[in-house]
Design brief:
It contains two helices and twelve strands. With 251 residues, it is mostly beta strands. Strands 1, 2, 3, 4 and 5 form a five-stranded antiparallel β-sheet that branches. It has a five-stranded mixed β-barrel with strand order 7-8-10-11-12. It has a two-stranded antiparallel ribbon with strand order 6-9.
């Protein structure tokens, strides 16, 4: 699957926090504009380019080179009345991802009155993903003939999309899908990887370490959902179901 913050060349891709991706990729979280700005809301050409570049780099963090990113920078609210500023600094607001409709922050760091605003941006990310080759009804078990790949704006698709047709074969649709529409995680019924009471493999990992063991599932293990597991010593942990009789615990 492809998530909106990470697009490795694997069948399944998740969505980690954007700030972590930028740090790992060595990308700056802020950029500076040295050109004096008399008064926003109109963006100078230099500042607009910096905003666009920041959104591009934010969207590309963790993505393969073949993905194509398109950024459209919007306009500030014309009703804004801001004091003149000698240096405006674009930055990524905490918690925002550079996918779809989002925003870039602008703050005055050299002026008589400090101010902080955001400008809207539209980020589209084009990559190949699995789509329906024909209209598909709810409850259909997917076959090779019903699936194809196409370049689409994956940032516009709710949930995670898939890059590998083989990973969808035999899966069951949870709702109808139109021809050409992307297959996403929300399109599929969840798989049950184990039943309550079954022995499962548990992988516990944290900063700088990882250990594995076995425990007893205290409930049915549904794909991507959390489940409690009891070890032989009586300790109970909660982890995410990641595969057949497999649970992952992150500390």
């Amino acid at each position: 699957m492809i998530s909106r913050a990470c697009i490795p060349a694997t069948e399944s891709l998740r969505r980690p926090a954007l700030a972590v991706l930028l740090v790992l990729a060595g990308l700056p979280l802020v950029a500076r504009s040295q050109a004096p700005v008399a008064a926003l809301p109109g963006l100078s050409a230099e500042l607009r380019v910096q905003v666009q570049d920041m959104a591009q780099r934010g969207a590309r963090a963790g993505m393969p080179a073949q993905a194509r990113v398109d950024v459209q920078v919007g306009q500030l609210d014309p009703r804004l009345k801001l004091a003149p500023c000698g240096q405006v600094q674009p930055y990524l607001p905490t918690g925002l991802q550079m996918w779809g409709r989002t925003r870039i922050g602008l703050r005055c760091v050299d002026g008589r009155a400090r101010w902080n605003v955001t400008v809207p941006v539209q980020v589209r990310v084009f990559a190949r993903a699995v789509v329906a080759a024909e209209p598909l009804a709810s409850g259909v078990n997917l076959t090779q003939a019903q699936l194809a790949t196409a370049e689409i704006d994956i940032a516009a698709v709710p949930g995670a999309v898939f890059t590998d047709v083989a990973g969808l074969l035999g899966r069951t649709l949870s709702h109808p899908v139109a021809a050409g529409e992307a297959l996403s995680s929300s399109s599929l019924k969840m798989r049950q990887w184990f039943a309550a009471g079954e022995t499962v493999q548990v992988r516990v990992s944290g900063p700088g370490y990882a250990v594995a063991g076995e425990g007893q599932a205290m409930a049915a293990g549904l794909e991507g959902q959390n489940v409690k597991v009891r070890f032989d010593n009586g300790r109970v942990v909660t982890g995410r179901v990641v595969g057949e009789r497999r649970v992952e615990v992150l500390l």
